[in-house]
Amino acid sequence: MPYKNVTPPQAKELLDGGEGWIYVDVRTEAEFAAGHPAGAFNLPVATGTPPQLAMNPEFLAVLKANWNKGQKLLFGCAAGGRSARACEFAANAGYSVLANVTGGFHGARSPLGVVEKGWAAHGLPVESAAPAERTYDALRRKV
To answer: What is the CATH T-level fold of the domain 4-140, as seen in this structure?
Structure first.
C-alpha cells in the first residue's frame, strides 16, 4: 500500500509534531463548511451531494498546483473511504508521503453502529469557518 492508515488522534499527533504534515479534507465544499478539523484545507475528491457523488475531474490538477510530491499529506473525509481513494490517486500521481485518516470526521459505521470514532467524536479541534486560502475555491484558482 502506497500510504499508511492513521486514526484521528494519530493524525493530530502528526499535525502537531512539527514535521510539516497538512490535513486535506476531501469532502465536498458543503460538508467542509459544516465543520472540519481545525487547520484543514478543502480539496474535494468527489463532487455532488452524498451519496450521489462523482469523481472530481480537477482533483489531481488542484493537488499538484498546491503541494509538491514530497509534501506530507493527511487525507480525511467523512468515514475514511473517499480519503483512501484520494491517497490512491495521489500515490499514482507520484506523491510519496501520504496517510489516510481512518474513521474520518464522523466515524466509520457498520449496520451495528460506530466501528471507529471520527475526528469530532475524539474531541479533537473542529472549526466551521476557514480562512479563504484553505478553501477549495482558493486552491482551485492556483491551477
So the answer is: Oxidized Rhodanese; domain 1 (3.40.250)
